[in-house]
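yo

u said u wanted the structure for the complex thing, so here. seqs first:
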Amino acid sequence: MFEEFLEEIAQENALREVNTSLKLAAGLGALLLSLLSIGYVAPLFIAVVLSGAILLLARIDPYTYAELFATPLSFAGLSVVAILLLSGGTGALWSWQPLPWLALSVTPGSINQGVYAFCRVLGGTSALLFIALTTPMTDLFVVMRRCRVPVVLVELMTIVYRTIFILLDHLARCYHAQVMRLGYSTRQETLRSLSTLCGAVFIASWNAGEDLVRARDLRCYDGKLVVLGENSPVELRPALAVAGFLVAAACVTVLTGDVAIVRGGP
Amino acid sequence: MSGVILEGRDLRYRYPRGDEVLRGASFHVRRGEKVAIVGPNGAGKSTLLMMFNGMLRPDSGTMLYDGRPIAYGAGSLRTLRKSVGFVLQNPDQQIVAPTVYQDVGFGPTNLGLPADGVKRAVRGALRAVGLEEFERRPTHRLSGGEKKKVAIAGVLAMEPEVLVFDEPTASLDPAASAEIMELLDELNDRGKTIVISTHDIELAYPWAHRAVLMVNGTILQEGVPEVAFGDPALVREACLSTPILLDLCHELEERGFPLPARRPLSVLDMLHTIELIADRRHCCRERPGTIAIFDADLPEAGSLAEWLTSHPGASVGAMGTRAKERAADDRVPLHYTYGVVDKCILRALLGEDTAILTTGGMVRRVFERVEEYSRQSGVEIPVIGTGGA
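structre next:
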């Protein structure tokens, strides 16, 4: 139940009270700059600054953060190895041809390409994690509505959000009840237990829907499903910090576009 | 207490393809009353409650609100449901929104209040249940008691006249139950009519103004709790057991002890009764202790700490969530968190000083309760209001 886990962290991070739009601007701006940058320095800069913010300002547990970062990083590592060996180019520093149709070579160009890709993954991941870890969904709904996302969509999202936790709860309870009565002891039992679990959750979701209708009626429902709370006000210091960060990141992007890690090659 | 606000006449109801769950129930609730509908599981309590705000329509019989039969059109039901707030047994079935603010604001928004009106309603309701700081909390992360309070706040925000609670303390721990019952008292004190259903006869007995004993879809007995639960045969028929204080009175009476006509509702009352039997005027010291009342909403409540240093060994009780939070903030250890006034009077009768930390309208109620006791028992217990109380 990792989703719940992420949302829980976000609900309790130290930047929770900072205006949601500001946090989104920082995260999305950083993501955009990471993607636009043609050099590796800017994404690296963004990754360092945002990771600093996540760990020091939002006070996210470093171990948790490392864990969250590990999955995208391992994928990035694999891609970098592939880019490094396969992208080819001139002035090979090392090469090997194990099979007639397969040539592996490391060139200055492929090194640059690999480092660039890796840093972009770092920048992009930290930007996304920054949003995910500092901004709970409940705050995002408010901003979405303000950004004119259609009411129907926001309504659906709030219902889904509310229902997910009810169903997860039910799922966990049913599952535990099955495990306690040895429901997963043999392969056949597992199959049987899983299917009844699915059925139980389906019925639970059906009931949750009926409960929602009843709860709405009890409380004078008149077509207005979404009530929005308020966003925290924009404060000067966080606003300046976000603006400063975005300007700095933009400058780094523009100025370091042609910095390469290894000279030579294209 | 004037005028009947809710009335049911010979209500009958059968669930589709099921047995008849209500077999001709007639009863009434007066304005400003606290009524407990008590019966075993399956007695039809919840079904009956669901008729109060038109969630269920009786197969036959009439349900009246404020003297007029309930109309079952969409518009009139909305008006009715604004006046008769219903709190379901399971708060998870009642909470519709992801955050506390959004959930409590649901009713007011649908009643057409403007944004700042909704905000005021939400603030007021959350303050009433003692969850002021909870606005942006996600509802799924609250404890059982907090969820219950959010559900109550969601109904309070629509400012109903009557509040109906289906099993208000079901699946709550004793502390949370006591807090909810205290909250119901506070709401009643502010003029709301309150109806609860419960199978906890001990809970209903001291709390209710009137009780309705129900079994098998019919009403067995109705009246003040000592009457409603006074006949052991009827209570047994309802698969319940007589409240322990009433039971004790029966046993004492059977042994020929003369008892006052008014049955005891609490340990304090019982003590009084026993003193009368034993013909010993007050098993207390010459001079009763003082009860000091502090208002937790006022900054001067901090003087409680000073008071405690000048009264070493004194017990402190807190009533209401805000008072308990204040005590925790000020690091004041609490000896009593429920049944506070009675406990403090009991201490005072032993000659000990006590302090009560509470908020708002409860301050006045503490004064009244102690004065009432002094009047009834003839023991003058000094009460002082400190810190603005």
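The first strand of chain A starts at residue 94 and ends at 99. Residues 11 and 193 of chain A are 34 Å apart (CA to CA).
cya
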